[in-house]
Amino acid sequence: MSEAKQVDGWKPITIHEPIPYSCVPEELPSLIKALPSITVLSPNAEEALSLLSISSPITRKSVEVAAARFLELGEDNTGPKCVIIRSGALGAYVATKADGGQWVDAFWTTEDSVKVVDVTGAGNGFLGGFAAGLLLADGDLYEATLYAAVSASFIIEQRGLPTLRMASEKGIEEWNNDLPQRRVDALRQRHVKEIHYKHH
Predict the structure, then answer these.
(1) Whether residues 91 and 134 fall in one domain
(2) Which residues are in coiled coils (predicted)?
């Protein structure tokens, strides 16, 4: 991971998730005014396209276009340092001006659709996991987004909150009878395999 994808020196940081009803084109000037105080901007895909008046269907391409436009907002580099557009089953697109963008898969794939019970709170869970991931991954944006995707995976498996218990005398937390770190490692490995496949 390159230095530019780190958030060292950003402390304190502000992660901004726009309120859904404010994600209309008329509110874009208000968002632009707030950009100097926003480190990470994270709308979902529908909100992002609406704010920017992009009428295209939600695809990876339209999300990438939206992220690039958000990074260009503001004057004199006052835009967000990072944009993460949460895109449901498509995954999440994390982008910075310095390094461009990269997709992180949703943890549950289409083959696991039975695991998706209720998406209420998935965005909040994602961003909470992202904030924790920034600490656990020493500010690495991509790694933090892996934690974010895993956090959301636990939220959507049931109605309400995941179950939590201590798995052993060592005090290791289990959520829904699974280890969060196991899921992070599995998602990271999935991406390593995809990158290896693309280059061979």
Answers:
(1) no
(2) none
Whether residue 139 lies inside any domain: the answer is: yes
| Residues paired with 96 in a beta bridge | 100
Identity of residue 110 = T
pLDDT for 80-125, tens place per residue? 889 999 999 999 999 998 889 999 999 998 888 889 999 999 999 9
Please tell me which residue, 195 or 84, carries the higher pLDDT value: 84
pLDDT tens-digit profile of 122-135?
A: 999 999 999 999 99
Nearest residue to 28 via CA among 60, 66, 57 = 66
C-beta atoms surrounding 123 within 10 Å: 20
* Cα–Cα distance measured from residue 133 to residue 143, given in angstroms and rounded to the nearest whole number: 7
* CA nearest to 114, candidates 144, 58, 145, 157: 157
User: Taking Cα atoms as reference points, which of 24, 16, 64, 66 lies closest to residue 42?
Assistant: 16
Range of the domain at 24: 11-105
Please give the torsion angle defined by the CA atoms of residues 185, 186, 187 and 190, in that order, rounded to the nearest 10 degrees. Answer: 120
Report residue 55's pLDDT band, with 50, 70 and 90 as the boundaries.
very high
Q: Determine the Cα–Cα distance for residues 7 and 39; give it in Å rounded to an integer.
A: 9
Domain-located, residue 3: no
Asked whether residue 101 falls in the same domain as residue 115, the answer is no
